[in-house]
């Protein structure tokens, strides 16, 4: 019995070292070597200052910037430590009222007519509450507002949206999308005119 117990403990120790320490270190090393930017969170810097990650949505409330999806993560949204949706069902009155309120605000902010359609990604939060991307349609609706706020031509801002629109993954998975942080950083690099 003692011999069996010592073998079991030895096997436990070996497997713990292999699968709990060795394997994670190996995979981390491979990821760091092959995909260093992604393995470190796809962080975005402006000079030496960390301004965010292209994988996590942020709250851009200034009218000079493209705004992303609403967030239900945390009290004020976009809290990566409290990732999650609102957990309200699609027929929940509170959710429907909030979506209607958000749609009205999007129309007002972007100079749209009172009944103009609004892309769903501008009025509904993602499941994580941290989605960093919006649809090209959601970006296009914001072009006129941003062009006016930055004293840029609408063509210049629209061209930027097209430049930063990413296609479907592998050509067939998902939908075309625009990363809000990347687009806003590119906006900051444009000159007025």
Summed up, the helix count is 6
What is the radius of gyration? 23 Å
Mean pLDDT: 90
Number of domain modules? 2
Q: How many strands in all?
A: 5
Short description:
This protein has 193 residues and is mainly α. The chain has helices at residues 2-34, 36-39, 93-109, 136-150, 154-163, 180-188; strands spanning 43-46, 49-53, 133-134, 165-166, 177-179. A hairpin with a 2-residue loop joins strand 1 and strand 2 (49-53).
Structural write-up:
The chain is mainly alpha-helical and 193 residues long. The protein folds into 2 domains: 1-40; 41-188, no CATH class. Helices cover 46% and strands 8% of the residues. It has a 3-stranded antiparallel β-sheet with strand order 3-5-4. Helix 4 packs antiparallel against helix 5 (154-163). The longest helix has 33 residues, at 2-34. The chain is elongated and about 80 Å long. The N and C termini lie far apart (84 Å).
List the topology elements:
Blueprint: H1 2-34, H2 36-39, E1 43-46, E2 49-53, H3 93-109, E3 133-134, H4 136-150, H5 154-163, E4 165-166, E5 177-179, H6 180-188
Antiparallel strand pairs: 1-2, 3-5, 4-5
Helix pairs in contact: 4-5
